[in-house]
Amino acid sequence: MKKSDILTSVGLLLGIVLMIYGMLIGSSLMIFWDLSSVIITVGGSVSALLITYTLEEMKNMGKLFVQAFKENKSSGKDIIVKFTSISKKARREGLLSLEDDLSEMDDPFMKKGLQMVVDGIEPETIREILELEIGEMENRHEKGAGIFLAWGAYAPAFGMLGTLIGLIQMLANLTDVANIASGMGKALITTFYGSLLANIFCNPIASNLKQKSAKEVGEREMILEGILAIQSGVNPRIVEEKLITYLPPKDKLEYLNNSIENGEGVVI
């Protein structure tokens, strides 16, 4: 289940608003507008992306952009609670009893892993299959973030190219004051557009996607460990203890404190 990532929206809007405010102080927004500079910077960088990536990969850019504004509702603490409950049932009623719970699981990765446990597949095979799935997901996410990283690299480069075009035009018309002003404007504005596109949009979106991917990979590794622990039939407290090691220090302390308050002490 996904929910809106408020900080991403706030960060992007705040960056745009502050940039516009800074541009408005002592000047008009219109002096920052130049159509040819937009064509060179945006059009040129997008054309470079078309050369770099396939059509299918480019089609995913819209979905990736939307993904940056969403985050997974689940957390490491939720995963521990879920697996602690499942391990208790498996220990009490046997692994086959878990089949009744599979239809209620929202996470397809967890559902797939536990289904293999119920089907009696060997632990080594389960680990191999699920690790391959995690690796493929990580590669897919890395490629998606890479599109925005590449765009963030191309945009300033084409901004610099526009600067060179403006300077050439200016130097070719030193006797015409109007052309000198036009060439200098293009020289500066294309660099501005390239830096703006890269640093307020492309690079932050790429970093956002990479951070979300790392979080999802960590959660899936945690789920894999829980699945194998349940299959091995270890004590539910040991399952819980293994999964707690995946939590950041702050979340770990909070989870332990909540467990103590609820009278569910954890082996430490």
UniProtKB/TrEMBL annotation:
Cross-referenced InterPro entries: Flag_MotA_CS, MotA-like, MotA_ExbB_proton_chnl
PROSITE patterns xref list: MOTA (PS01307)
GO biological process: bacterial-type flagellum-dependent swarming motility; chemotaxis
Superkingdom of the organism of origin: Bacteria
Record GO cellular component, one term: plasma membrane
Membrane-spanning ranges: 12-32, 38-55, 147-172, 184-206
Keyword annotations: Cell membrane, Membrane, Transmembrane, Transmembrane helix, Transport
Domain (MotA/TolQ/ExbB proton channel): residue spans on this chain: 104-222
Mode of membrane association: Multi-pass membrane protein
Cell compartment(s), UniProt: Cell membrane
Similarity annotation: Belongs to the MotA family.
Name assigned to this protein: Motility protein A
Natural source organism: Clostridium sartagoforme
Upper lineage: Bacteria, Bacillati, Bacillota, Clostridia, Eubacteriales
